[in-house]
Amino acid sequence: ENEDRYEDWLTGGALGQGGGLYLDVPVQAIRDLIEQHGGEHPDQEGDDTASEATGQDETAESIVIQALAEWGIAAHRDDDAGNTWLAIGHDQTRAGFPHMLAEPYVVLYLYNDTDEEEITVTRAPADGDVWDVVRGDGTGAECTLLTRPADQLTACVEAIADWITTPQVTPDPAIRLAELNETE
Q1: How do residues 152-177 score in pLDDT, each as one tens digit?
Q2: 61, 89, 120, 131: least surrounded by Cβ within 10 Å?
Q3: What is the CA radius of gyration of the chain?
């Protein structure tokens, strides 16, 4: 009688409960199969290269993150109510997601309102899309910094790089509160 599952496997049985192993398959056949399905890559288990392996376009998120990384700029994905965007903090020395209610930031996303209003970075840019770059001052106030057609990402990345290298002044919360009280 076989003493354990490895002994069982070594004597021709199945290893584990997931089915049999196919030890007589030529190594070259496995290598050919891997090549047919996109080849080996650093992130075998992740989703980042899944679109490349299937021949689909890259997502806006991956395109933007790569373009910003060339400038040494980090971006972080955020989402709410089905919308997605990338948030970029002014302080690039600070690790992690920007404190959007405490420090200046910009957000970047694709916008399309042809059928339904869409704010996204989860798909590839398409005809009719525009890039929106919106800046926030860290107090809840936001305004559009730049809007460009989907084929003009470089202008958006350059505007973000310029914004990051320009000192930002966040209004004093006490002064802002006083201004709000005066307008009421």
Answers
A1: 999 999 999 999 988 776 665 555 67
A2: 120
A3: 25
